[in-house]
Amino acid sequence: WDPLSALASGLSKLSGLHSPDLRLVLELHPFYRLRQTYDTNIYLVPPDKVTGARQGGGVLSSWVTVNQLGTTWKLPLNKRHTLSGLYSARATNYSTQGKTNNALDQEVSGTYGYTGLRGTAFSLSEIYVNTEDPAFSEQVARQRRTMAGTSGVLDFQVGRAFVFGLSASHQLHKYLDPALGGVLNRTDTAMGGTAGIKVAPKTKLYLAYSRGLIHYSAGRKDNSRSHSLGGGLSGVFTSRLNGRAQVDYSTRRYENTPAG
């Protein structure tokens, strides 16, 4: 037995194997949006009193121009697995007190999606937002904060008629100003599910429930718990019409709510 001959024979057999046909196509969809509105109360404060007293910056109006530039992308790995995402930059300009109110926001997100048999679908998403809260007056300017979030959705079908879904999300909000961060940094968590029945091949009637938790990291006593119960109809109604109609009832309770 000649080891060199055996090695040469093995390499020859490997060279004869067909390489896998792997083809990936990245789809890019750039977009630009322009929106202009007229805001009659840019600081969202009550009307000025007849005595001249005012809250915040008082009632001021302004033209608001929003320029948004970005792109969505999609990378199908195969017929069941897909990667997708978004990048967006949005510039907001005010004709009144622009130095205080102008803002630049950015958002980037990515999603992994899986589509299986019999209505099974799963997605896992990450999102990062760099934004600014609105100003209260010319002296109390906008405050920049970031938001990082993770969410997941699972949909599945039991039999031919029953459809179910589970969802969960977690967001972390952080302010760049340490003084504000000490009282406003928080986490926002939500969990829920849906249960429905198909009334047509692509239309379902369903009930939905979700529970939310908001927790402030600095020990602030404004933590809250919420419940939401709803129902609705969603699906593809005609070849050109699809949508969803839902009615919800929600409650929220804060930690510092007095007993009774």
In short:
With 260 residues, this protein is mainly β.
Which labels suit this protein?
260 residues; 3 helices; eleven-stranded antiparallel beta sheet
Please tell me about this protein's structure.
- With 260 residues, the chain is mainly β.
- The protein has three helices and eleven strands.
- The chain has helices at 3-15, 98-101, 178-184; strands at residues 27-39, 62-76, 81-94, 103-115, 121-133, 143-158, 162-175, 186-200, 203-216, 224-238, 241-254.
- The chain has an eleven-stranded antiparallel β-sheet with strand order 1-2-3-4-5-6-7-8-9-10-11.
- A hairpin with a 3-residue loop joins strand 6 (143-158) and strand 7 (162-175).
- The chain is extended, with a radius of gyration of 26 Å.
- The mean pLDDT is 89.
> What is the SS-derived class?
mainly beta
Q: How does the overall form come out from the CA principal axes?
A: extended
H and E string = HEEEHEEEEHEEEE
What's the number of helices?
A: 3
In the sheet with the most strands, the strands line up as 1-2-3-4-5-6-7-8-9-10-11
Q: N- to C-terminal separation?
A: 91 Å
The radius of gyration over CA amounts to 26 Å
Q: Please give the largest β-sheet.
A: 11 strands, antiparallel
- How much of the polypeptide forms β-strand, as a percent range? over 45%
How many strands appear in the DSSP assignment? 11
* Rounded mean pLDDT score: 89
Helix content: under 10%
What low-confidence regions span 5 or more consecutive residues with pLDDT below 50? none
